[in-house]
Amino acid sequence: MSFLAIDVGNTRLKWALYDKPAVDARLLAHGVQFLENIETLAEGDWSRIAAPTQVLGCVVAGEAVKRRVIEQLELWDVTPQWVVSSAAEAGLVNGYDHPSRLGSDRWVAMIGARQRLIARGQRSPCVLVMVGTAVTVEAIDADGRFLGGIILPGHGIMLRALESGTAGLHVPTGEVRDFPTNTSDALTSGGTFAIAGAVQRMVDNLRHHSGQEPTCIMTGGAGWKMAPSMTVKSELVESLIFDGLLAIAHHRFGAVPVA
Ligand SMILES: Nc1ncnc2c1ncn2[C@@H]1O[C@H](COP(=O)(O)OP(=O)(O)O)[C@@H](O)[C@H]1O
Ligand SMILES: CC(C)(COP(=O)(O)O)[C@@H](O)C(=O)NCCC(=O)O
Ligand SMILES: [K+]
Known about the structure:
By secondary structure, this protein is an alpha/beta fold. 32% of the residues lie in helices and 24% in strands.
């Protein structure tokens, strides 16, 4: 019995194989592919792993990409399930106006963050930052209610937007500096401060709303780039989406429900 978790973002597909669909599962193998290389999975990485008995994924990259992933999964005799954000799941309540319109990666990552806090007996409000193609910053109260969140462009999109919208900005990535004195550093620092500042603002909002200090958790492919420049104390957890998928799978496929 093994469980394959898949996270398809707008830039890359991430996958992880576990020995069972449960929160205490053991990681057996994992990998990542840019979306343009999805077609290599069945004959490449996935040909070298044991057939999973369950597959659960989240996809925010659109129907066409999802179909290409499903095609690769035909390698095995297994019907994949896909997370759709709902009004409540695995201990989290969704405050979005239309719960199903919330990006499923955001929902799954929040479930992962919530599980992590509960596992260590921490009943604090939480700000969750996900730095991928886009950046999302979510606010979850101490009772596990998603209050709302923001979406902003990721580093790459910010730079491309500036390049295409101006005559004078075509420069390689620079360094993050307090007081940038060249165009490259100015652009890199601008993007980084925009994200760090947005997180700071959401932490302030949530502290004000709840009267408690929020715990800040960060994840996503570009999380490590942001970590040194954050102005609030934050914890980088690379596996948050997989933790969330395991928690959901535990509820759906596992014998014993959690929290
Ligand atoms: N080695 C890397 N390869 C690709 N992207 C990377 C790498 N390191 C950091 N990144 C950054 O991470 C982002 C992709 O992160 P990821 O979480 O996979 O995004 P998504 O879920 O939107 O596909 C890219 O936009 C890029 O800025
Ligand atoms: C905000 C996102 C684009 C983030 O995508 P990512 O950076 O992970 O590729 C994605 O979660 C999405 O398409 N959301 C749907 C709209 C919403 O959450 O309101
Ligand atoms: K993502």
